[in-house]
Specification:
Aspartate Aminotransferase, domain 1, Aspartate Aminotransferase, domain 2, 16 helices, about 45% helix, 3-stranded antiparallel beta sheet, Arc Repressor Mutant, subunit A
């Protein structure tokens, strides 16, 4: 018997702008769920029936259902069928509540000065998926079916410890798998006792800052550098010293007026410029950290994606018992919504920071962690990185050629480390990169202005252009739209 849901989906499918069929169907079903046409707990039509009604292949429908299930829109019940996830109701109620205009405080002083400063410097993008967005991997190429099989196997009969509060700062199985991987792939010297699982890099940075700095302490950051570090330091009332970056990485101060408590660096692939910290510079930085009794915070956010030469080993592994806190994430290697990162702590910091983490954040997601541990142990993680390294290298080369052909070689960034998930398009000093980025964003081209990554008054102008998540057939037309914006709308 034909179900009403088939008619609802078919109507939405026919009204969705034409593009690839699987994307068109995905968007149609998502809109039906979010707009309430498909209510929570509604039964989804069988894939064969929906494929016949829409004149699609069943494989196309299966692919869309798998993606929707991986993202939590729908779920499958054994011997019962596929249903809209009931928890979607909470999300819809929340969204409806947010449409009511919020009451604006009459006096801005009701917010803390730290909060007001952060709001003034807020840089998080309201859109997190679109052509040329920096820092986002190709989430469509993740092996969702493989990971789902592992997850279902773990979730079918989970250990009771997976379903309660996490009091160990991460599942032991995941920390064990990670320690083996990091020693082999990144040269990190660690044991499982030194690893702490976090919900991404931001939580790790906040934890380290809160536990090791008092208000008024000083921290060194890179200039330019990641905006998230600046805002975390602002919220914790830590003074910021932004030190210039050259082709060898951060340039330490020989005679610092105020010794830093923390030194934040991205030595294997400087963010956002892309330079690699040289061995003499690394040794100098380690020496200064010992002299100042400072901690170096090494953000190793995308070092797996190096497309030529030998991998750059971690700064943490350069010396025994180095004064380095090593931070990594699965957001770039797998997908951001996973919300899993990790910290490798020096032995003397491991116990207190894990206790603080447990007190402040009350982490969970142990079932996901258990599935990820198996994903790593069974070799799928390393295989996925190898596959994506080849794909991203191809897309990077394609983008470099487009920049040379349509803008000119002088528009390529100063540092070419042949790594990472984005490139810099260098703009003339007179260009308004913020305005260019705003115009491009309005057309769905999600580049970011380089000048927003600077702390001091002296700023270079450019655009951060991500290439990892741009499908091959979209790159040329999207890039030509960006070129048009740069050439004809911004000067």
């Amino acid at each position: 018997m034909r179900s009403l849901t088939v008619d609802v989906i078919k109507q939405a499918f026919l009204q969705t702008p034409a593009e690839k069929l699987h994307k068109k169907l995905y968007a149609a079903i998502c809109n039906c769920i979010l707009e309430g046409s498909l209510r929570p707990a509604a039964r989804m039509p069988p894939t064969r029936d929906l494929a016949n009604e829409l004149s699609l292949s069943r494989n196309t429908v299966l692919r869309v259902y798998e993606q929707l299930q991986a993202e939590g829109y729908i779920s499958t019940r054994t011997s019962s069928g596929t249903f809209v996830t009931e928890s979607v109701l909470d999300n819809l109620n929340t969204q409806a509540a947010r449409t009511v205009p919020a009451t604006v405080p009459e006096e801005p002083t009701s917010l803390s000065l730290r909060c007001l400063e952060l709001l003034e410097n807020a840089s998080a993008s309201p859109a997190q998926w679109g052509d040329f967005i920096p820092g986002v991997p190709d989430v469509e190429s993740f092996p969702h079916r493989t990971f789902k099989k592992i997850y279902d196997r773990v979730a079918r009969r989970p250990n009771p410890e997976y379903l309660t509060y996490d009091a160990a700062s991460g599942l032991e199985e995941l920390k064990s798998a990670l320690s083996d991987y990091l020693r082999t792939a990144r040269g990190v010297k660690c044991t499982t006792d030194q690893i702490l699982i976090t919900e991404g890099i931001h939580q790790a940075l906040d934890l380290v800052t809160r536990t090791l700095c008092d208000p008024g302490d000083n921290a060194w950051i890179e200039e330019p550098g990641y905006w998230g570090i600046k805002n975390i330091l602002r919220m914790n009332a830590v003074n910021i010293s932004a030190l210039d970056v050259d082709d060898q990485g951060l340039m330490p101060q020989a005679n610092a007026d105020e010794k830093p408590k923390l030194i934040f660096v991205t030595p294997s692939h400087q963010y956002p410029l892309g330079s690699v910290m040289s061995l003499p510079r690394r040794q100098l930085l380690l020496s200064q950290a010992r002299e100042f009794q400072s901690w170096i915070v090494e953000d190793d956010y995308d070092s797996e994606f190096r497309f030529s030469g030998q991998p750059i080993p971690s700064l943490q592994g350069l010396e025994e018992n180095s004064p380095v806190i090593y931070i990594g994430t699965f957001s770039k290697t797998l997908y951001p919504a996973l919300r899993l990162g990790y910290v490798v702590l020096p032995n003397m910091l491991a116990a207190p920071l894990k206790k603080v983490h447990n007190e402040l954040y009350r982490s969970g997601h142990q079932v996901i962690q258990a599935a990820l541990a198996e994903f790593i142990r069974e070799g799928y993680y390393a295989a996925h990185i190898r596959k994506m390294r080849q794909l991203y290298s191809k897309r990077r080369n394609q983008l470099v050629e487009l920049i040379k052909r349509h803008l000119g070689e002088e528009y390529l960034g100063y540092y070419n480390s042949n790594a990472g998930l984005h490139l810099i398009i260098q703009l003339p000093a007179a260009a308004d990169d913020i305005h260019i980025a705003k115009l491009a964003n309005a057309e769905g081209i999600l580049v970011r202005p380089l000048s927003r990554y600077y702390f001091n008054a002296q700023k270079s102008k450019g655009l951060l252009v991500g290439f990892a998540s741009v499908q091959d057939d979209n790159m040329l037309p999207s890039f030509l739209r960006l070129v048009k914006t740069i050439k004809y709308k911004a000067y």
